[in-house]
Amino acid sequence: MEETTDYLESLQKRITAVKLDIQDAFYYLETEQLRYRPQPRSWNIIEVFEHINLTNDFYLKQLREKIEQANTASDKLNRGWFAKWFTNGLKPKGQSLGFKMKTFNSIDPLKRQKKGFQLVDHIVFQDLIDSLEQIDQLLEGAKGKKLSALKIQSLSPLLKFRVYDAFDIVVSHTERHLIQAKNILKGMS
User: Which of 82, 89, 113, 125 lies most in the core, judged by the most C-beta atoms within 10 Å?
Assistant: First the structure.
């Protein structure tokens, strides 16, 4: 069985790569590029980033609380079959997004904008970078903690995941939508 610390370090490497990739690919884009909509009802890049932010916000608060509660002890990774299956489906396969998922209304940027929420490009982008840095810090803080018994609520009220599985969900979800944003960028040329 893999040590939890090794697993958390692998997630840290993935989130660091995502952060660098986002900064390299999107930091210098103009508003017109960030707001380019490939189809009338599809998301633009800034909406993809806002969706990531909304999802990360949901999980980060819970992750922070659970890590603060966790005891200091070595821990073996003990992932359940459902968590493995779910995160495997979220992870992109090359440039493919994996299986299609319905977006909850609470994290759908188009539906939120219809309710009057405004998206300001530089704020959404900075919030994304900040959330990725928070994920990295929480992953670091989770090392050496006993996480196997701690669970958090998923976006679906029916599901709970162990803390380390929730980290994988957040990282895989971000990787998935990074590919979506890159595909939008490719579609502009």
Answer: 125
**Where in the sequence is the domain holding 178, given as residue range(s)?**
4-187
Question: Can you list the residues of the chain whose pLDDT is less than 70?
Answer: 1-2, 95-101, 189
Q: Give the whole-angstrom CA distance, residue 168 versus residue 172.
A: 6
How much is the pLDDT for 141?
A: 93
Q: What is the pTM of this model?
A: 0.90
pLDDT at position 148, please?
A: 82
Q: How far apart are CA 75 and CA 12, in angstroms?
A: 17
Given this model, what pLDDT does residue 1 score? Answer: 45
CATH of the domain at 21: 1.20.120
Q: Please state the domain count of the chain.
A: 1
Tell me what pLDDT residue 132 has.
97
DSSP letter, residue 35: T
Residue 64: is it exposed, middle or buried by C-beta count within 10 angstroms (0-12/13-18/19+)? middle
Q: Assess contact for 116 and 42: CB atoms under 8 A.
A: no
DSSP H or E stretch at residue 165: helix 163-187
